[in-house]
Amino acid sequence: MTVHELYQKLDPALVQEMFLYFREEERDLYKTSIASLAQNRKLRPVFIQKKSVPDQIAWLHKTLQLRNQDVVGEHLLQVWFMKGQQPLLIDFCDGMGIAHNGEGSVEEDLPETLDDAKLKATIETLLGKYNPKLVSLYLHVFNKQTLSGWENLAQLIEEDDRIALS
Prior knowledge:
- The chain is mainly α.
- Helix content is 67%, strand content 0%.
- It has two domains: 3-84; 86-163, no CATH class.
- Helix 2 crosses helix 5 (53-64) and helix 7 (86-96) runs antiparallel to helix 8 (116-129).
- The longest helix has 15 residues, at 70-84.
């Protein structure tokens, strides 16, 4: 699934949570996102900035659903997880036995394979602690961190309704 397809399937409430985080905690990134996406759509950023916050977020979400916005969309997801969802990343890395810096940033190369038993147990733990839609999004994003992803993770994403995006 491509990044713009992820945004097409994402729960608007999750997108709102992400952009409210950026607006409150990563203000420069929020402004830069609006400016970059507006420029890509041949709009002046001020046109978007004059909208109410819910309308800005709806516009950002709608724009990130476009095919040519994958680079910006992927960057935003990565920043959100690395800065705004660290406990989830830490729990995933710990569960999978992936070395990290204590903040969820992987220190070495990602493993070539993911142990099936660890993967299933880790997903169960994450689903018990976090919003299943957030867990699903993270698993989709994590699976994009290598060219072809991990086959067993892709299969679980596809088969387990609890981690379906929509």
